[in-house]
Structure to design on (88 residues):
């Protein structure tokens, strides 16, 4: 899968999950690229007090509630396979 397409999949899933947790559907989702030691390591998404962090090396998306507690950890491979099954 091309990286740009994968990034869109992660954005879509993140937005949907944050809305299920209670984020306002009209709230802006801010995205930040994460760099560690000069190398890309992931993306951080923030929306209406909720946060999700995509750790590229771990291939995982961690979703945090408004209090900063981890609500869910999602394997990116599982996320993509789930979307493909439901798109067919």
């Amino acid at each position: 899968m091309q990286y740009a397409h994968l990034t869109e999949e992660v954005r879509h899933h993140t937005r949907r999950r944050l809305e299920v947790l209670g984020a306002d559907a009209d709230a802006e989702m801010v995205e930040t690229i994460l760099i560690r030691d000069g190398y890309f390591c992931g993306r951080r998404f923030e929306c209406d007090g909720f946060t999700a962090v995509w750790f590229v090396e771990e291939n995982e998306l961690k979703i945090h509630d408004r209090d900063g507690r981890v609500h869910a950890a999602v394997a990116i491979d599982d996320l993509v396979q789930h979307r493909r099954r439901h798109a067919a």
Residues 3-21 form the longest helix (19 residues). The longest strand covers residues 39-47. The beta strands are 30-36, 39-47, 50-55, 60-64, 70-75.
